[in-house]
Amino acid sequence: AQVVVGAEVERRTDRGGPHRPPPNLGPWWFWVKPPFGFLWMLGLIGVVVIVGVFPIIRRLMGRLERLRNGVKQFGDGDLSVRVDVRGNDEVGELAHQFNAAAARIETLVQSHKSLLANSSHELRSPLTRIRMGVELMGDKPSPTFKQEIRRNIAELDQLVDEILLASRLDAREA
Question: Of 19, 82, 91, 123, which is the most exposed, with the fewest CB atoms less than 10 Å away?
Answer without folding.
Answer: 19
